[in-house]
């Protein structure tokens, strides 16, 4: 009932057609993009989304006990990661890591990484599109026409809204629903291709000038977006992308994810107000050719992920120790049983990973078990942790935002897991809590 | 195979064509003006209510061509104006009737381009594509370039047809159905077979019957590979295709009821279950076991067997038990073993949820991101009533295209990158013909990928997204702008000092408009091109900035001069580069938000 009222409120406020533009910061306050002074008491939140449904039982396989027996002999006789192959983690013998994830194991063993067991939507949904959309839009149950992503509402409810050059970056060619309705979020596939330099040598740059003038006082949604692209282009061109030297001599893996993470790190250093980076990393839908051990699709993806996360940690911790938190998540896990192609179909509960200096390393949450009566509908790893509890703890303790009910519509029962050190703000679950709207709404 | 790679990430733009560089002999001091040193504006609060800037309503011909075609151009506009009718609207209704019967439209111009441009695979049969581009009967390995050729030719032909075809509605609907039944062209084996998918599965049914299209899709090697049904066997059903068929092709996610017991799904007053549940996905997956093609199994080409790529029903792989889908039992019939699936297809194609889903998507594509329920209902009812008619989709499109909602709405959609690029190329009368034998085709192909909407490159089965919000991202916008900026200055074989012949007719169109040289002024050029491209006259500030640009006489100083002084477009040399300046100003118009409305 409550939710229906909330939607009515949104409709009457005009949010649906304009996509939550109220209180939006347009234009850039910081005219000194090269400043390296820390201006933000918040972390940089790096959100890596593993599109396609990452197989958590392959990434974090059981190593001993009843779960291992069930896993290796009943559920996945031809697919499991043998406990002689999986990576042992310090202080833990029930679960290990995929053999291609040595760089992640290093972070875990240094107490810089937490693994939260069996997270998921509070209601299982085996559709990629629906499960992903629910997470990106920050909704529960079913997709409604809220018209804004969870990160859009995160920024809208931020108490000291970003006055940054670029508060949010999606280093991708395609946008994501997580920033739906927020033209301030910079979606940028490649910083080296981010200006109008493909025209006639004598007139091309003038085209960018004129186009900037045509959009500089935007009064339509489309002009806001054009203006934002042109202003971001101006900023991006002041940065020497090819000459970047990562901190701690970190080496990013070759390939798309490595490039994306490197862009995030560099922009964070050059443009200190960067607050959120959202990185979609697809390819995990392993219905066929999942592979095992160190070969196959899954191993290739895992190697890139593991090395990329470790490089980002090393790079940023040189200059920004304890100033960033990385969250890694997928829309769902996969079926506990192998399928006919020695691969896996869509499932439910799945581990999440958190990386950072304030992360309480080790395992968190409760693994529900793999025996037939422990599996969700006898088929999937069940979910015991609402994924929003994990994200919320980061928001409350590292991002100074307590308006959880505004960010995750319908969410009203935060449970602290203790996956981040320290104490957090007290959550507010009202969707339209007054404080939020003082900034820009009548 | 990774069919669900939500975002496409090319490693880099390969062979993207040379940049335009300042000739060394002009090595004077470069412009002192720093192009990117515009002062950054201080942050300001922008309230929702401030974003209600007026958007001018263009004339009806521009509106309709922007929505049902890939944008307006001179020849189609002139053609419509010459049709019988007392008003533009009457002429347009006659045009819509013609477009609904594409076979009656002479498109020999486009066909002539294709037949003269070196295409060799567009008309190959399914077996020819398989055995010449995917797996040869003699086992000799097929070179990669040969393997991908049919897909690449389909891609190039898509550009040629979108730009040139007189059957514009047929082309925009082809795009629609390709996205509805999306197959990522990077799927294993799909590049070789894609010509068959485009010609015999999609184009063959674009204005026909949905049930026929659903069946043709389910028989295609492209979809069977993409969604793993080629190897869907009795002992281990693979549910990928079944799930997407229910969610994305027919009943839709809106009517997915999760893990509810099937018997709890409400029944409508004609006895249908109104939605589907998880159990239905598994049951449909069982039903689809054995729907495969020759070549899907390793055994098809071992021990002297020769694979053909043709559809193959494998009885030994098929689950012969009764399948209960959405509350109805479908039993196996040994005398007609594919009848269980065919009966399910009938049920799905007849279901009102399918009609509503298709109607909603069509209205969102052609009318608005938020179409009214009444027009959705009209289209839905037409689809549902005529679900067995051979021209079911044509009947529904007629209802849609002749509705006031379609004829009158404006700016409730924007052009996505492909539509924006094509509509610019239509205005340019882009005359380079994509062809498998011209290397520039490859440069255009790679250059367009970063726009985010290269045809057939969406990796997941839901097809390219279709609302404004999905396409306002800076990366997609900037990449599309760069593509338009580049194609508008492209020339054939530029060999200095000869700049080469441009691949556009902007100069000729301008000269034809202004036969008196004294009329070729900065003001007139800008007004003509803006109104022709955007369907409205430019507002004062826009006109001022563009005419100022057009009045520059020196590439280095870049300061405006008088805008009513005639410009000699027959010269294109230092310091004014008049012809290239004309292309730059015209292509700037293609980058405005006004050009991008539909």
Task: Describe this entry's structure for a reader.
The complex is a heterodimer of chains A (442) and B (598). Chain A is 32% helix and 13% strand. Chain A has 442 residues and is α/β, with parallel strands linked by helices. The longest helix of chain A has 24 residues. With 598 residues, chain B is mostly helical. Chain B has 24 helices and 7 strands. In chain B, the strands form 3 sheets. In chain B, strands 2-3 form a two-stranded antiparallel sheet. In chain B, α11 packs across α12 and α23 packs antiparallel against α24. Chain B is globular. Chains A and B meet through α2, β1, α6, β7 and α8 of A and β1, α11, α20, α23 and α24 of B.
Mean pLDDT of chain A: 85
Q: Which fold does the CATH topology of chain A refer to?
A: Alkaline Phosphatase, subunit A
Task: Give the strand tally of chain B.
Answer: 7
Number of domains of chain A: 1
User: Which outline of chain B best applies?
Assistant: globular
Strand content of chain B: under 5%
Cα(first) to Cα(last) distance of chain A is 25 Å
Strand content of chain A: 5-15%
Strand order, main sheet of chain B: write it out. Answer: 2-3
Largest sheet of chain A: 9 strands, mixed
- What is the structural class of chain A? alpha/beta
Global outline of chain A: globular
Rounded radius of gyration of chain B (Å): 27 Å
Number of helices of chain B: 24
CATH architectural grouping of chain A: 3-Layer(aba) Sandwich
Question: Which pair of chains forms the biggest interface, and how many residues does each contribute?
Answer: A-B, 106 and 100 residues
Counting helices, strands and paired strands, the structural category of chain B is: mainly alpha
Rg of chain A, nearest Å? 22 Å
- Overall pLDDT metric of chain B: 92
Give the oligomeric state: heterodimer
